[in-house]
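lol forgot to send this yesterday, sorry. struct tokens for the thing we talked abt
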């Protein structure tokens, strides 16, 4: 290689190294925010249902601030290089999706869509070739939410909320049914989906026990069934 070629290569390597460091700084900020979110949301397991809305309000500004970091990432990533860099922030993004999905369930009892999650996180179509919420990351976030709800089903009973496990059961079964209709080709995502059956069974056991002990009213709109086997 001649000296000019070497000089050009050095320049390209330095530029890429500088870019990586700038992206890493933003990812560290993103990760810090999502850790704060997880810390706040972990309190739902020791918070009575009537106090959960105020807990959500405490965490909501942190979730919305994630959009500021995402905007900064989008300004750094060169056009059409989303797939080259996305692994640097995908874990933080999936945690943010988990938080947005859990907020939606705890607030409205519904499932947040991919589009609505993108809006909450400040994603914009004009830079989707640099930063966007992929279907894979969205689904990973939903699975984490189900994992958390299976814990909440147990802890809600400890706190005396016997209706919550029944609501969670109906909600989670609907999500599980939706996942079952997807053709999941990603190995990691498929393995995580397989784990959902254990969450469903865990919630079923709580619901069955609560119903057997007659801790819920007979006119409840949620029906309890005997837990199914994990064997496929």
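and heres what i got for the seq, position by position
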């Amino acid at each position: 290689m001649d000296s000019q070629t070497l000089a050009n290569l050095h320049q390209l390597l330095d530029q890429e190294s500088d870019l990586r460091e700038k992206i890493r700084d933003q990812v560290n900020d993103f990760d810090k925010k999502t850790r704060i979110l997880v810390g706040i949301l972990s309190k739902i397991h020791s918070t009575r249902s009537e106090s959960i809305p105020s807990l959500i309000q405490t965490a909501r500004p942190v979730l919305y601030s994630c959009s500021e970091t995402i905007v900064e990432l989008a300004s750094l990533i060169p056009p059409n290089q989303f797939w080259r860099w996305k692994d640097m922030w995908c874990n933080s993004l999936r945690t943010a999706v988990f938080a947005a999905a859990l907020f939606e369930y705890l607030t409205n009892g519904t499932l947040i869509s991919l589009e609505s999650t993108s809006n909450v996180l400040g994603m914009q179509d004009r830079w989707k070739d640099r930063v966007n919420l992929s279907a894979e990351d969205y689904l990973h976030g939903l699975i984490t939410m189900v994992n958390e709800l299976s814990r909440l089903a147990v802890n809600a009973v400890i706190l005396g909320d016997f209706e919550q496990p029944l609501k969670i059961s109906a909600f989670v079964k609907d999500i599980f049914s939706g996942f079952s209709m997807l053709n999941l080709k990603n190995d990691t995502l498929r393995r995580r989906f397989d784990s959902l059956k254990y969450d469903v069974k865990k919630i079923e056991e709580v619901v069955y026990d609560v119903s057997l002990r007659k801790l819920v009213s007979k006119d409840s709109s949620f029906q309890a069934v005997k837990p199914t086997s994990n064997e496929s």
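The chain is about 70% helix and 0% strand. anyway ping me if u want another try
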